[in-house]
Amino acid sequence: MEIATFNVNSIRARMDLLERWLKEKRAVDLLALQEIKCTEENFPFERFERLGYDCAVFGQKGYNGVAICSKYPLYDIKKGFADSLFDNQKRVIAAKAGDYRIINVYAPHGDLEGEKLIYKLRFFSKLKSYIVENFSLKEKLIVVGDMNVARDDMDVWDPVLLKGSIGFMDEEREAFEDFVSIGLVDTYRELRPNEPGFTWWDYKNGAIWRNQGMRIDYILTSPNAFERCEDIDVDLWTRKRRSPTPSDHAPVVAHFRDE
User: Fold this and answer.
1) Of 146, 155, 186, 248, which one is the catalytic site residue?
2) Do residues 201 and 208 make contact, with C-beta atoms less than 8 angstroms apart?
3) Total domains present in the chain
4) First vs last C-alpha separation in the chain
5) Three-state SS for 242?
6) Of 106, 130, 188, 218, catalytic
7) Which DSSP symbol is given to 62?
8) How far apart are alpha carbons 74 and 97 in whole angstroms?
9) Rounded CA gap, 5 and 130, in Å?
10) Residue 158 catalytic?
11) Strand, helix or coil at 248?
């Protein structure tokens, strides 16, 4: 099974690009999308169905929103945390596909200080308790998504310049590490320890061509799911394009072998 995570920065703006990627480059088995920026009724279900995907969507108008699209039937679908304090923003959806449980996350962007930063830190604490209380790391659990945090110096193009910037502040990194500490494996860093693996580049100043990026999109797994992970990469095909207009993120794709 090939599993991809991709912040599309508006599914309606990116659907033509995504369809070309799936048809011409990489027909992944399961695709977790973040920042779809549309409600469920406006999601392009029919286009995904023509490509062979069953989709579950937790969306909102103009902001946030997550979806899981799979060639395997989706079941046991859970939308949000079942907590109104957090679910006003549509950021988490979970489902089973085959014998894998997928949790798709779009973490808040945050801010340098104030309420948005506090909300981001609380979000990771909530995500940690949500997984611990509702799922088991003994199952084949895969947590994917745009976490809006770069873990280490290797995960940013210039750790000195970017120190203290959004996504690379000590408070954010500590909150993210506390979440990962429940027993999740960072598959990219484990399998590619010497490769930066940037997944996001600013639209400004040709950052993608200068490789001035950050690694903020992840495929995290339980230990037994990681045992089945054979490879992982960042697919730059969708990002290094002028038309259709790319997202500022690139998809991360992991391959899991059958038992």
Assistant:
1) 146
2) yes
3) 1
4) 11
5) coil
6) 106
7) S
8) 5
9) 20
10) no
11) coil
**Three-state DSSP class for residue 256:** strand
CATH code of residue 28: 3.60.10.10
- Global pTM reads 0.97
Active site residue 146: yes
- Reading the block at residue 183, the tokens are 């027993």
Instruction: Considering only CA atoms, give the Rg of the chain.
Output: 17
Query: What six digits make up the tokens of 143?
Result: 């947590």
Q: Which are the contacts of 57, defined by CB distance < 8 A and separation ≥ 6?
A: 36, 40, 43, 45, 65, 66, 67, 93
The range of the structural domain enclosing residue 250 comes to 2-256
Q: What is the pLDDT along the chain (259 residues), one digit of tens a residue?
A: 999 999 999 999 999 999 999 999 999 999 999 999 999 999 999 999 999 999 999 999 999 999 999 999 999 999 999 999 899 999 999 999 999 999 999 999 999 999 999 999 999 999 999 999 999 999 999 999 999 999 999 999 999 999 999 999 999 999 999 999 999 999 999 999 999 999 999 999 899 999 999 999 999 999 999 999 999 999 999 999 988 999 999 999 999 998 7
